[in-house]
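USER:
Make up one protein:

ASSISTANT:
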Amino acid sequence: MPLVGILLVLVSSGLHVLWNGLLKIRPSLGALGQGMLLTGLGGTVLGLLLGERVGAGGWSFLLASAIIHIAYYVLLNRGYQLADLAAIYPLARGLGVAVMPLVVAVVLGVATPLGVWVGVLVVAAGSVLVARGERLGAIWPALALGAVIAAYSLVDSQGVQITPPILYMSVASMVTGLALVMSQGRRALVRDQAAAGSLIAGLSLVGYLFLLAAYRIMPVAPALALRQLAIPLALIWAWRQKEQIGWRRGLAAALVLVGAVLTALA
């Protein structure tokens, strides 16, 4: 694997944990929407100045990505309101990787290798272990996020083949941010959280662009596997924030990590 690709994935993983950790601390959808709207607008202008244009048929992927990401941020925000990051993050990320090849198999008719099923079962074991230690009413957003992550991964992997990544992600971010602001109404105007929302949105956009750049110079499977290093990083963040990790959460996160890597490499 190229060193540049590895570095891009590692930086992307670190940024992903960072903005998730910040969202856990300041869970305001209105502020996040404002930030996404502003950063998306800036990225769109940059993409246009670089000569990027939406390709033929690209708008359908952009709209689909925006709709899926609205669900993603709503569920993620709700999950962090109900449960600890140490429970939500590993479960959502691991399930997203595990569900992805199954979605591809169903939607694109691609055969599912045996290794994928092994990885899915290991992730399922970790998920059950998490669920046994948490109230289902608190972690249901993480379960739904697994399907949502798989959905946007499939859509975006196809969308960036039609529209260049900077313009693609920026326009999708702008539409998503606008929808989040409108959904919050007057609650969107959270002045004391505006800076945090912009920071979270910027980190999210840049981190995902780094990952898309890595996909262009290295195989997707090892990149996905390497990205799962975000799970132990998230546990370190949670521990630093005084969350209780314990043996159950630690073992469950380890199972999810191993299962996600097996699935990505199969």
